[in-house]
Amino acid sequence: MQTPVGELLKTKGNTVHAIDPGATVYDAIALMAERHVGALVAINKAGKLSGILSERDCIRKVILKEKSPRDVLVRDIMSRKVACVPPDRTVEECMALMNEKHVRHLPVVQGDSVVGMISMRDLVSFLCTEQDLMIRNLEKYIEGSL
């Protein structure tokens, strides 16, 4: 089961939800809520990945510090050292990287472009589906109907 995340993106979709680093955290939270995502990539004016902002960042660095999300900019709290993966990285390797880096979202990059975003939920869902398929195939094999 060495499926590359590029294959996962073909099923999941490769929509990348991005925000300008100069936007307010309020705008970022509103966008995350609207798009039902837990993180946004910060793309600068030159179109380059400059960071990632998660719901967790907003809570820890703004809400719990009693700052106003309307007054804090994304660039002030985003994570600048972004763990990224190429599309040929396997699902298992991505899960290991997420565990190692303590992150829930990974941008998928090809060259200088962000071509997708995967979450821990995406990976777990994929693995559960794969395991279910494997179990059904084993059952059919045992029954002799495969």
Structure description:
With 146 residues, this protein is α+β, with helices and mostly antiparallel strands. It has one domain (5-143): Roll (CBS-domain), CATH 3.10.580. Helices cover 46% and strands 18% of the residues. The protein is built from 6 helices and 5 strands, in the order H-E-H-E-E-H-H-H-E-E-H. It has helices spanning 5-12, 25-35, 55-63, 74-77, 91-101, 120-143, and strands at 18-19, 39-43, 49-54, 105-110, 113-119. A 3-stranded mixed beta sheet has the order 1-2-3. The protein has a two-stranded antiparallel sheet with strand order 4-5. Helix 5 crosses helix 6 (120-143).
Q: Short description, anyone?
A:
This protein has 146 residues and is α+β, with helices and mostly antiparallel strands. Helices cover 46% and strands 18% of the residues.
